[in-house]
């Protein structure tokens, strides 16, 4: 049904002044997230609630009038999970920014609008640490992290978002406010509903509060950077390392991304290398040096052309920052289609080689960076949007890379989510029965289908 | 509906010879699990399938004839999750025992009938480790571990079962065979269905295969044992320790359990202590000694009466084994009602004190052991089943301990599951809305309500 101005006015009236925005000049910045979904349209309105109760008001109204609602965090999503659809209201959690750290229970109770970096900073004030660290941690919100079950660089040792979510407060499609889980480190009372909502991309409810587990502060890290003449040699090294120890970071960059980062940062990376690994150890005391030494030996055994190590945390952080800068650096070369495919670890070389083949066949540049220790890669497909033929080839490559990952027993998305851009490939991964199972759960929780319609399903 | 012998015969005929057992002498041992639910009845039959397809045959038949099915692992459950109900067929997974370890991908693909200890042993052959370690690890099955999201002693550092389940193969109520997740370390494609099934206690499906994440072998552990003149002093120590480092074990025993274990094992434990902590560090190399030293200082600062440390792994293992032996040791004193309540860490002293008060008021012995670092306690209520008045007082205490945990912001079950014995308390913990949400998911996945009816809901 189409929402009339009168109906929209009832929502505006039910919310505090200024909560509901209908100014088209403002709405335009809520059309889409970083995935820049070409199908995005102007939403009817954007609600910017500051409390759970205001989110409930929106959802009750949306249920009554069957209005699609698009939950939105910081808008840094890369799969089109926050694309505005026709006739929708966007619910932006950007103004829900309360946080309370309880250092004795070692938890942070946070509202979804906090940035990941702000949660880390608040924990650090108490000598504690919230590990999950998407490369975008300075601009992505914790609500979005929960919605996508976000990963990051330290996940290879410390796990992903779901491993740190003890409890959630969620507003369901009909406006019901439920509290799932609690500040208990172990809790098996009832179904694992907290975990079901983590990663549900706003299709089952809107998270208005999360209780996050914190751990003692991370010790200073030692860092290794190694260059390789082949992708295979780097991938072999990854397998050798992960079998013997647990690095706190194990990242991969290919020749294209090394060059792009070096162009931007001029830090002396080896442009002639086909692959580079950045590995870190945060083992305490002298053990970090031992772990770095074991990893350096693994690099040398696989024929690394250069191995550099440092126990200076700042110097090491510069290399981690270089890796995190890879996406913006490659983006200078053109528009990006950002992939997020993962494979079982031993298939990593086959994936990277297959991507290179697709790049050649489709004649588009594909830079590859990877959370190598997790088998999770981010092929960055570079194209000129003014060149329609190239853009089409880029989109074909985008699909072919997912097909390739699936053929290797992999996943179409390791940490960004399915959103709208990848949902055409989801049935190929999950199969008909699991899609049907997913739909049954969606129907049970959102029978009118008003929560983020078109995402995932 | 009541199942006639003819209908049961159709199931027997559809399964391989010997798969379906109806001999009452055999059935009697499938009536109940270790919770010894007094409401248990003789099942109609027990199916002991060896393949997923045989489980599908049972579920299709059960759907057609609306027969309740009770999934059963090793029968070591402590909440009555496998209690046989009237007119049911028990599906025991004990004969599904295939395992394949892939050391390069660092996974084990296991069938549910394997014991936890067998999975650990198979991983160890490749220098790898499956961490979750319920005290019953030598007799509990991995299928049961998945069904209850089992915990254990090393979980304080390494997490619980759900943290290690990458994929599941599940037979749904209607016999559909679905594969959820896969051998990818990061995977956010679609809803977190794998995590929904972990801990669902057989109410949503029957797990016929699990893909488990393995990590490099645990380094040898150093161990600390400390005695305290008060529970509060021990609890203070737990908070001091967990705020600064991550021990690989942090266990608590009260005076009663110390005495019971000492009676049985005669290893020189301090019977006069009100509380004992057993802590371990598996940090590599010299760091273990450092961590043990930090923990010893914390014990001393809290006024520990005795602190013993050892870097001999066997000597340390003897103390861990003593802790694991606490339940059998206390069981020598009478019948047990086994609790599993957890609280936010700072509430641990209040919980232990409150339990002592309930013990005094109800005049029943309650021994308390705890995975202290997780705030997860196991009060063991000891009673003489021949003494009806005492048995009644014990059951009252059982409920009061859960009420106490809830009043402290805790959970009625940290790692054993709700099963049937605790479900009366579940609404008090979850609230009406979350119970309704749970029921909606149950209805969506098991519309006829044939999977483990009466468990959880």
TrEMBL record, chains A, B:
PANTHER family: GLYCOLATE OXIDASE SUBUNIT GLCD. Residues 39-217 form the FAD-binding PCMH-type domain. The keyword Iron does not apply. GO terms for molecular function: FAD binding; oxidoreductase activity. This is FAD-binding protein. Its cofactor is FAD. It comes from Rhodococcus opacus (Nocardia opaca). InterPro entries: FAD-bd_oxidored_4_C (IPR004113), FAD-bd_PCMH (IPR016166), FAD-bd_PCMH-like_sf (IPR036318), FAD-bd_PCMH_sub2 (IPR016169), FAD-linked_Oxase-like_C (IPR016164), FAD-linked_OxidoTrans_Type4 (IPR051914), Oxid_FAD_bind_N (IPR006094), Vanillyl_alc_oxidase_C-sub2 (IPR016171). Keywords: FAD, Flavoprotein, Oxidoreductase. Belongs to the FAD-binding oxidoreductase/transferase type 4 family.
């Amino acid at each position: 049904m189409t929402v009339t101005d009168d109906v929209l006015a009832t929502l505006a009236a039910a919310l505090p002044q200024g909560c509901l925005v209908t100014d088209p000049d403002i709405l335009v910045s809520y059309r889409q997230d970083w995935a820049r979904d070409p199908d995005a349209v102007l939403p009817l309105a954007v609600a910017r609630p500051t409390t759970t109760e205001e989110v409930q008001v929106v959802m009750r109204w949306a249920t009554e009038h069957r209005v699609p609602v698009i939950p939105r965090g910081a808008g840094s999503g890369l799969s089109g999970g926050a694309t505005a659809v026709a006739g929708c209201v966007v619910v932006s959690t950007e103004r829900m920014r309360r946080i309370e750290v309880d250092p004795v229970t070692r938890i942070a109770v946070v509202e979804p609008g906090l940035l990941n970096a702000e949660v880390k900073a608040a924990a650090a004030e108490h000598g504690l640490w919230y590990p999950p660290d998407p490369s975008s941690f300075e601009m992505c919100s914790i609500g979005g992290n929960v919605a996508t079950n976000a990963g990051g660089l330290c996940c290879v040792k410390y796990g992903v978002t779901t491993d740190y979510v003890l409890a959630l407060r969620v507003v369901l499609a009909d406006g019901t406010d439920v509290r799932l889980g609690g500040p208990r480190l172990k809790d098996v009372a009832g179904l694992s509903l907290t975990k079901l909502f983590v990663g549900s991309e706003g299709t089952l409810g809107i998270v208005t509060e999360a209780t996050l587990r914190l751990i003692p502060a991370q010790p200073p890290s030692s860092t290794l950077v190694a260059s390789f003449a082949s992708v295979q040699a780097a991938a072999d090294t990854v397998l050798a390392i992960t079998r013997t120890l647990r690095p706190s970071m194990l990242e991969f960059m290919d020749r294209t991304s090394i060059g792009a980062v070096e162009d931007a940062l001029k830090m002396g990376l080896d442009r002639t290398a086909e692959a580079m690994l950045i590995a870190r150890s945060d083992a305490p005391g002298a053990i970090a040096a031992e772990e770095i030494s074991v990893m350096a030996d693994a690099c040398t055994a696989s024929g690394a052309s250069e191995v550099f190590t440092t126990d200076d945390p700042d110097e090491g952080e510069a290399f981690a920052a270089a890796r995190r800068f890879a996406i913006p650096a490659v983006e200078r070369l053109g528009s990006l289609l950002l992939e997020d495919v993962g494979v079982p670890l031993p298939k990593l070389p086959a994936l990277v080689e297959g991507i290179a083949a697709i790049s050649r066949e489709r004649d588009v540049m594909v830079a590859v960076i990877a959370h190598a220790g997790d088998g999770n890669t981010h092929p960055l497909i570079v194209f000129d949007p003014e060149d329609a033929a190239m853009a089409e080839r880029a989109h074909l490559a985008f699909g072919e890379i997912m097909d390739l990952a699936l053929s290797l027993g992999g996943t179409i998305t390791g940490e960004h989510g399915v959103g709208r851009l990848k949902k055409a490939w989801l049935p190929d991964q999950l199969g008909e029965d699991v899609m049907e199972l997913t739909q049954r759960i969606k129907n049970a929780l959102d029978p009118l289908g008003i929560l983020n319609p078109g995402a995932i399903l």
